[in-house]
Known about the structure:
20% helix; single chain; Nuclear Transport Factor 2, Chain: A; 2 helices; 6 strands; 45% strand; 6-stranded mixed β-sheet; alpha+beta
Amino acid sequence: MFDNNRYLTCGVDSTIPLELQLFLWECVEKMPVPKDYLQVFELSASGTMQSIIHSAEEPAYSKQYLIPSNAPITEKVYIIDDGDHSTMLLSSEY
């Protein structure tokens, strides 16, 4: 799961900096198996840090990251694996 072709929506492309997109993909790569087809990322500002809470439902998973950022983003991002490809999208685009 999540080892197929990767795509992102126009919303992600225009809202989420490339470095942060790559970090989110890496979070999914490094998480333990088995992985839920739906990965959720809550992005928010924590002072001058970008807070990222990565979660999934089945099996239950949650991990928080804090990374330095000059312009932290507040957004909810999904990465969904449908078996053929993986797509990163803003929750508002779901």
